[in-house]
Amino acid sequence: MKKFSLFLALAAFTSGLSAAAVIKKTDTKASEARQSEFYERVEIPTPAGEVCEVSSLALMPGKKIAIGTRRGDVWIAEGAYDADLSKIKWTKFASSLHEPLGMFWKEGSLYATNRPEFTRMTDTNGDGKADRFDTICSKWGINGDYHEYAFGSEPDKNGDVWVVLCLTGSFHAHSPWRGWCARITPDGKFVPTASGIRSPGGIGANDKGDIFYTDNQGVWNGSSSLKWLRPGSFQGNPTGNKSASLLDFPAPPEPTSGSRILAERLKFPDFVPPAVILPHAIVGNSPSGIACDMTKGKWGPWESQMFIGEQTASQVQRVNLEFVNGLYQGACFHFLGGFEAGLIPVRIDQEDGTMFIGGSNRGWGSRGTKPFTFERVRFKGKVPFEMHDISAKPDGFEVTFTHPVDAASAADLKNYAMDTFTYIYQASYGSPEVDQTAPTIKSATLSADGLKVRLVIDGLVRGHIHHLVTDVKAKSGDTLWHNEGWYTLNEIPSK
Amino acid sequence: MRPSSLLALLATAIFASAAEDGAQVYNTLCVACHGPDGKGLNGLPPLVGSDWPKGPAARSIKIVLNGLTGPVDVAGKGYNIDMPPQGAVLSDEKIAAALTYVRKTFAAGAGAVTPDEVKSVRAATASRTTPWTAVELLKAHPFPPAKTALKNLVGTMYKGEWKQMPDFSTLKPALMEDFNVGVVDPDQSGLKSNFAMVWTAQFEAKEDGRYIFNFDCDDFGALFVGGEKVAEIKGIAPIGGRRKEVPVMLKKGLTPIRIEYVQVGGEQVVLLGYKGPKDKGVQWLSKSKGGNAGKATPSIPIQPKDGVAAIYRNFIGGTSPRAIGIGFPNELNLAYSAENVGVELFWAGKFMDGGHHWTDRGAGNEPPAGTSVVKLSDGQAIIQDGAPSGNLVRYVAAKGGKDFVFSALPVSAEFRGYDLDKAGNPTFRTAGEGFAMTDAWAPDTAASKPTLIRTIKVTGDKAVTVVLARGTTISGPSDGVTEVGTGLLIRTQGGVYPRSSTADKTLTVTLKPGESAVLGYSYR
Predict the structure, then answer these.
(1) What CATH class does A386-488 carry?
(2) A195 closest CA partner among A249, A168, A162, A233
(3) What are the start and end residues of each CATH 2.120.10.30 domain in chain A?
(4) Does residue A385 come out as left (phi exceeding 0), alpha (psi in the -120 to 50 range) or beta?
(5) What CA–CA distance (Å, rounded) separates B418 from B439?
(6) Residue whose C-alpha is closest to residue B71's, from B48, B45, B47, B91
(7) Contact between chains at A429 and B89 (C-beta distance less than 8 A)
(8) Interval A285-310: pLDDT, tens
(9) Which fold has domain B150-284?
(10) Which residues in chain A have their CB less than 8 angstroms from residue B90's CB?
(11) Which tens digits make up the pLDDT trace of B386-424?
(12) What's the complex ipTM?
């Protein structure tokens, strides 16, 4: 036996003694089993005999909803909100877009971002089918590679649509503007807006109108994450940098492989680090669509939080964001699971509080075993006992719970464990977790209303993911639905 | 505790944790595609029943370290899918544990993999940055010889361009190899175009009797059994229409067999099989097995329905990536290039098959499903007098050395979209500086043979020239009819007449604002 492996075994043994292992983490199967106490998940029947690999969703006036499929069809449903889904009525609106990944309704037309272009579809003669197809913008390159997807947002407050353009395969940019985000103005101008993109899975706004996208683990992405598309920013993957020369843009950063995100982004001020890292193979493997809760409670007590689809695990994760020293950061939590296929688009009807979600597992496997799915989820009114959010403090974190916490349980330090880690920022595919530390939780103080626990922590590490496991009980005696959170500490606030 | 017992305890802990780690790594990273039972989830490749996890550990280690890309045959089925590399994520120990788990659980009999093996493969392939292809891996670590009737198979490769079968005795081989795999496969050449292969082997007949040989290839070839030429595939065409089934009487024992094969370009396939006196089905001696060779994709025909034209926007072979295919009910079809603002392909019969793009990840081009494909033009199809001002540009990529380089190409016109009438007939819209143009297509219901009527109109204040054909054979116009490619006739039925130029092999029509051209497209 080599000394090297002896050393590894010892290291594993030592870390096994750390406090983190003492608290039992909530088990995925067990929490998915409790889901129906809080949320009702229903499959919506898709048009009979059709392969509806849902890649886009658009909410329309009059409680209609449009789905776009990977085969390029657009169908409009009436009755998708109704209790009796057997009466749902589907009308085919259009055929053969090219893999639309982003769709919305505006002023009498459906708009779709698809591989080659951003398209407006209009039914001018009122027969229920689109007869006019306007190419609003097609300034980016495509070449036949399966990976060159284009994901589009809903319009922002200026009416601009944000498009993120996946690289060619995992390692290349063989067509112009691959690896970039661009805004498309209402009159069709193509405005390159951010560089450094690898493989997006979805795009959407938060409650302030800032645009975020999910980027998948791979080269220059040690883990998947939710990223903030600050205009002018570099998102970390230099593969597509060469497109900058097309419009005489300043050259995006050329970071050093094998470094850390924190070190490189301090060198390059345009480099915006991931707002929230979704630790690979722990929280998920491939994040997709994004929806923000602005339902004022109809979707649960999560106002302004972000909900992220997950292709591989057929789940929805939950994210709380805060803005510290000019950057977004925050925590992610496991949330919903058990969906029938890999998830792609997510929409929340903000008036009604219904989440619509769909997907397909073609080409990429998923825990959900059906080839495609269209589902809706509704909050049943019973608030689960959860960490509502985690907020960074100069000397620790404040954890807000959805129900008052039992005082004795909250004060017992044995009910908390924290470890931190980060990833290597490198040109290779993914990264192991590295630079692990074990901070000390020095005190836990419960607020007067019983909802907030203030954790004073020795050993916060800027740039690291802070993994919190907690076993606190609710005042009612209830246990947490999910008891882990992962906070990406880009910045330690000064107050 | 004495040091030796500490060591023993640690050793136990390591082995225990290695075994546990293997299952854990597999169930975290591999399970999403290969499935908890190793049978593959949702149409992704299985490990059970596959030769890939068996045999030399180095092959499996390379796949895990750097990933696998492109076409691969697994357990008798073709896939075209990427496995992401894990070398940067997983330690040597974890890879060894996961592979040991896979080999013990799903590939009975394959031995354990040690961290040292992973370490040495990692070191040996350190300069490799891109995923492996199946061809590369099988060249370095072949599967054990297949138990087919082909014994002592040797392949010889020749480089060159041939339109008909060359005399191989006069040619100098570029490569000769003992392909000890029992099947013939054009990929054994390592090339994609302009080569020939000759395979020789001994065919083992299990008993006396009648053996029916199946033979086909893309592009052409010949089959010799016992020194006699028994089948020949002539011309340049894909697999399918020319397949030969020839009976040969053989004695039990070994008979010499020889396959001559020439690949010009495009798909490369050799199909070779036989049915012996006691065989129920064809026994394949080629990597491709019957049907649509090499492709495991189902057929999903896309056709006009209820008299309404079909539309297919995807990567259509022979035109640009921004293709819009239209299949009309009178069995004429076209592909419009939104990139080049013109119709680039015209064909007859079947429209398109979605089987390739609509299964797996759908990479690459799909050729038209029909016949008599004519490539009308390439490059910008709308031209204004003088050079484009540069206000309109298209961003283009070109292969430059190892990588792609990008530039902004000034163009005269941009694609603006299309309208569809109730019958699905399209009017493509384009615009440039000082003009707009419509390009409408519809079946001619009055014509005696299938015909499409094309109506081009220009508005605004600038004249434009529309390229109808470029870079193909153009005969005419004569009496208002021009033959383009082989057998496609373009007939002036109204408006401005097109003119041809033999110098630059073009057929164009120049339209001033307010003018139009009406053209009928049909096959001779």
Answers:
(1) mainly beta
(2) A233
(3) 38-379
(4) beta
(5) 9
(6) B45
(7) yes
(8) 999 999 999 999 999 999 999 999 99
(9) Jelly Rolls (2.60.120)
(10) 432
(11) 778 888 999 999 988 778 999 999 999 999 999 999 999
(12) 0.93
Angle CA(B138)–CA(B139)–CA(B144) in degrees, nearest 5?
Answer: 55
Residue in B closest to A363 by C-alpha: B360
Q: Which fold has domain B301-523?
A: Beta-galactosidase; Chain A, domain 5 (2.70.98)
* Residue A99: closest C-alpha in chain B: B314
Residues of A in contact with B354 (CB under 8 A): 71
Residue B193's pLDDT band, with cuts at 50, 70 and 90, is confident
Is A21 near chain B, with CB under 8 Å? no
Contact B360 A218 (CB under 8 A): no
pLDDT at A334 > cutoff 60: yes
CB contact (8 A) between residue B405 and residue A242:
yes
Q: Does A335 touch chain B (CB under 8 A)?
A: no
Domain spanning B3-140, CATH class: mainly alpha
Indicate the residue of A147, A177, A371 with minimum beta-carbon distance to B42.
Answer: A371
Quick: pLDDT tens for B125-162. 999 988 999 888 988 888 876 678 998 888 899 999 88
Portion of chain B with pLDDT greater than 90, in percent: 53
Indicate yes or no: CB of A142 within 8 angstroms of CB of B44. Answer: no
Cβ <8 Å between B397 and A175: yes
What are the extents of the domains in chain B? 3-140, 150-284, 301-523
> Residue B194 in contact with residue B203, Cβ under 8 Å?
no
User: Facing residues of A284 across strands?
Assistant: A280
In chain A, residues under CATH classification 2.60.40.1220 are 386-488
Fold (CATH) for A38-379: Neuraminidase (2.120.10)
Q: How many degrees, rounded to 5, is the angle at CA A163 between CA A157 and CA A166?
A: 155
Q: Do A432 and B91 touch (CB under 8 A)?
A: yes
The reply to whether omega before A250 is within 30° of 0 (cis) is no
At residue B1 the predicted structure's pLDDT band, cuts being 50, 70 and 90, is very low
A425 touches chain B (CB under 8 A): no
Chain B residues touching residue A144 (CB < 8 angstroms):
315, 321, 363-365
**pLDDT of the residue at B290:** 61
Q: Which of A171, A246, A371 sits opposite B395 (nearest CB)?
A: A246
Express each pLDDT in A5-52 by its tens digit. 333 333 433 343 344 447 889 888 889 999 999 999 999 999 999 999
Using the beta-carbon criterion (under 8 Å), do A117 and B315 form an inter-chain contact? no
The pTM of the full predicted model, rounded to 2 decimals, is: 0.81
Q: Which residues make Cβ contacts (< 8 Å) with residue A198, sequence separation at least 6?
A: A166, A167, A170, A179, A215, A216, A218, A219, A220, A221, A235, A236, A237, A239
Contact of B50 with B75, CB cutoff 8 Å: yes
